[in-house]
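Two records follow; treat each independently.
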Amino acid sequence: MPPIYQSTKRKVVFAFDIGTTYSGITYAILDPGREPEVKPVTKFPGGAAVGGNTKVPTVIYYDPAGSPCVIGEETQREGIDVLAEESKWIKAEWFKLHLRPKTQTTATVSDDIPPLPPGKTAVDLFADFLKYMDQSAKTYVGEHHPTLLSSGQVEYILSHPNAWEGAQQMLMRRAAVQAGLITDTPDDHKRVSFITEGEASLACCVDKGLSIKEGEGVTIVDAGGGTLDISTYGRRGNSDEGYEEIAPAQSYFQGSIFVTRAANRYLTERFEETQFRDDIPFMTEKFDKATKLKFRDPTDPTYMKFGTIRDHDPNLGIRKGQLRLEGYTIGDFFEPSIQCIVDAVVDQQRIASRETRTVFLVGGFGASDYLYAQLRERLLLHQISVLRPDTYLSKAVPDGAIAGYLRPVIYSRIAKYTYGIRSNIIYDATKKGHKDRLSQRFTLLCGEMRLPGGFWTILKKNTKVLDTQEFRSNFFLEASNKAEFAKVRKTKITCYRGSLLYDIIVSFGTTEFKAQFAWKENVSL
């Protein structure tokens, strides 16, 4: 149960989970002195009037001029594909993955992601969808609480994969500004915060009653549409003291869309040179929307209906509009994702600072019975048990984002990388590497000899970082004129000409790390 809201200001908090394939919203109404009211948004424009879904497709149709014309739930209307073809609309989906870090490990992902519409950036699409989500949320809340939005402050929580960093958070905040959620000012920037999908999933599990014995760990596998987010945590003392990350969180691009892409490649190879080649997109859609979700047993064939009774060719495995797919073939589509999770969980167990024998499987892809059964069977060989909640599988991230906002559960994290800055290092004539670079040596104003291109570590990889902990290193800047000191800060600095001693402070305790300059100014006794 969330704690009583102690502030004097009324507030509404929206948690937007913009997933690769589906998105959802959970919100909290915070009234001073009362227990927070937490609910999902269950009605979106174009959806059912009652009993609506809590998830909408992360899809946008753009007209030839580049304006969004149909978004989210509206893209599910009957006949929308025909209208889109007649109107020459461009369908944009899976665009979230275009925001991913461009690292060597994600270089090949581009081959499986549909390209962006002409003239559009990933931020443009993210902003258009954020605007749709914001309007949907405010309309829904306004129908139930007419005066709330005009009488209280609005804050936003945006979730993202574990592997996303400051650069991706910057792009998401830029999209929030472009969408009109906030203005481009430092104070308004604070109204948007971020949470990893791993931390949100943990917060949801804790909020729903997850119990970990003191001294043990648990691995959370958030299996989504685009990514598999793997995080491992341990309880610190009793549950009220929170949880600590005991292994670096990881994210892999092997979500459910890659199962569908594997199916599409298979269908293309099988039917490209047949009379059914024009049916391949529809076959793929049928696999994605039905066959993939219902698949359970690789020893049984599956019959996928895609056409009419006139579509008949036994030699191609098609009878009366139904395509026969062997169970082992479908199992092959799942295999890379399954093995990715198994390898990641075993690796987390290996590097975790305490024993972990339990996995909690959440996320929309986690609802697959075949995925669940395979993970249970294979991880049992490593003495690891896999549990799957009966409910809230697809809502773990937005619900957990709100739960983590109301009652933070993470006490400490593990640094995934080494952080530092480029610096000029002191020249040491006794070191061979320094002597080899003698031609690069230069002399500071103070007479000290230095070499350029060094790296000064502020935080080492795998370091345990407390929630409010700062890491500080000392540096100094020399200059022959006052204007040079403007490089430290673009404001007037009161100081003597010469050396300016300053610190670089980096805070890593929250999901979004922060960096600051600090120096002493006008100090006297």
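The next record belongs to a different protein.
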Amino acid sequence: MQSNSSQPIMICCLNPNCQHPQNPDGTNFCISCGTGLVVLLRNRYRIIKPIGSGGFGRTYLAEDVDKLDEKCVVKQLAPQVQGSWALQKATELFYQEAKRLQQLGEHPQIPTLYAYFKEGNYLFLVQQFILGQNLLEELGQQGTFSEQKIQELLHNLLPILQSVHSQQVIHRDIKPENIIRRQSDKKLVLIDFGVAKHATATVAAKPGTTIGSFGYAAIEQMQGGEAYPASDLYSLGATCFHLLTGINPWSLWQTQGYSWVQNWQMHLQYPISKELEQILSKLLHIERQLRYQSADEVLKDLNSQQSPQPNVSPTISLPPRSVFAFPRWLLITGFCATLTGIVFMGVSSFLDQHKSIQEGASKTPSPRATNTSNPPKIASVAPSLADNITTRVQNSSQTANCTIVVDDPAPPLNVRDSPEVKPDNNIGSLDNGTTLTVIAQRNGWVQINSPIQGWVAANRIKKVCNTSTTPSSPLTTTSNPPKIVSVAPSLADNTTTRGQNSSQAANCTIVVDDPNPPLNVRESPEVKPDNNIGSLNNGTTLTVIAERKGWVQINSPIQGWVASNRIKKVCNR
């Protein structure tokens, strides 16, 4: 016998403990375990293969021969439990799932119940098959979700929860595995109502019994077996956290209990808007009464915050962390000048990508690498380069009276050695109110070179201006020394240089010296297919402002990062 797909028919053994349930057509007894085989369950459903298993039994992919072999899902109740109470509980939960699906299945993003019956020694539930990937699989294949994808997820799932909760049903097990992105229309489908309960007519739980998934389930579920709409919303927040960070909440719960939700932001791989952060923080609040109480409340906040933009610039998803590791290299001449006397002509000036950062007045001139009088030849520049850096500062007439200061809702502000969040790249921290000297901004991060050098999240700083509109002058730090909470010990050693004779520095320039020109300029210190923003010919003079891990940051003739072993210092004798 052949199926419609011209593949040989295999008969699947329904013994939930069978290790090799697939059998050739025509076999009467399972080759592996000896159990009698059923060709068509209830004379209608042909079991194709197991697709999942758990404490309550197995789940199979099947075909409905009454519907031209349409695919469906068959769940088999075969609880791996001991004792009459546990068996009764499992049976009641299985019946509940069928009842909830029948009640909720009219929603287009919840699977439809087709049948519920007993055959032999087992109970079976047949439901709609959703072709697609669950979000845990999507996370594994595509990497962490951007803020935009998280907002789309919330807009997609919250109306489902509105419908579920309006019918007095609590799902109790929301997590990435139970959310499928349907292949046909890319909409999200909420599955697995196996532990769902009615908000009023509950199945009595035995003392000490918890239902839900550790890490995702709210504290009231774990401690008392209680569940409310706010409990599902907590699980939704934990799901968003997992997809944003790639960190399973279960791993944090194992070591920290529920305390991890108090500083969940520290695990972010890239900054997100304050608006989304506030929503997730409220979803993840330990105290049920302080969480959102309904999906409607979340949607209201989500919709009201669509128009306002983040404080610094629109949130842009950072690329995945680089898999390349470059040795720390010597810092190029000119960077020390930044530390000893360079000041900049206002924030709006440094944001112009085609202007050099100007050297401010200093009593003791500092040597630095500068451009030659001949304009450099730029081989190519990406069209979007001029739009790649934005700022909060809009009124240049007030620049001289403005400073950029730390404004972190959860101080101190972490300073990192690259524009990303990683466990090993925190090089210091700064208190609120500390004045910063900003030299660049990209993809939600701001680079500073005072009071310490590094990168900070752009939505954790603000501009403070006096009302005076005196003529523009260089933006510098205040006369009061800023308070540095902590600095990594290696920071002071991070400013070495190729040039050993400082007396010659003023007569030296840094130029492109690539054995395979032109030299690629990248938007971040890593090699990726999509971060090449331009290229420079050999001999082009560069203005260097920073160096880190085998890369050099330049701000002239264009802004970006170049490989430090593709440039050289040329000095007049």
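Discussion point: The longest helix spans residues 84-104. How would you locate this feature using only the token line?
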